[in-house]
Amino acid sequence: MVIRNYNKKAYVELNDVKLTFYKKFRTKEYDVKDIKAAYLDDNYIFKMLYKNKVVTHNIVNTLSEDKYLVEALLLELNKEKNIFYSSYYQDARGVGYAWLVMAIVNIIQARSSWISILFWSVLFICSISLILGKSYDGKIFLYKTTEKNIFIGNKLDKKIDEFNINTDFNFDFKNSGNCYILKNGKKKMHIINNVLYPRYYKEELENLYKNKAS
Predict the structure, then answer these.
(1) Of 36, 107, 186, 202, which has the fewest CB atoms closer than 10 Å, so is most exposed?
(2) For 124, phi and psi rounded to 5 degrees?
(3) Dihedral sign (CA 58, 158, 92, 176)
């Protein structure tokens, strides 16, 4: 299966072994066997759960004539009918390490200036806080419709917690944000209801919501 872009060149290609995205300056390939689930939102943002990480590609330049193939692509990649979402996160540890190096260098060089030493000392403390802290939100929501289990994990530390849909948790719908809110103890996740393909995503979430509301 080959999906073309506006220039009628290969944009996305799927065969039995590889899923390939052709970009202007690079090509990205993924092993089909390692794709656990995938979806396309209404902004034509393609997301898939690949191994233990979330991969995102913008395919907004899909040729109009080939858009019907996009739905076929998502159906092919979701044979097990898993549903997943991921929250955005920002890992601040990289910034923390950069600040730490800057602070150490400038503290050593600023011996004659107490103001400079004070400033870089504060930055040093902040950098340590960023490195040791968790100033990111990287949860994965994975719902296996065949097993009726919910898995919530962190993309960075790969810890996965499993919940059966019959256990106690809150699953509510927020009209103002067009999203579901999943709560279990201290865990909370917003699941945006804007999936275009595959179509069963919305149906399964609606069923899950109705089952918990009853």
Answers:
(1) 186
(2) -60, -45
(3) positive
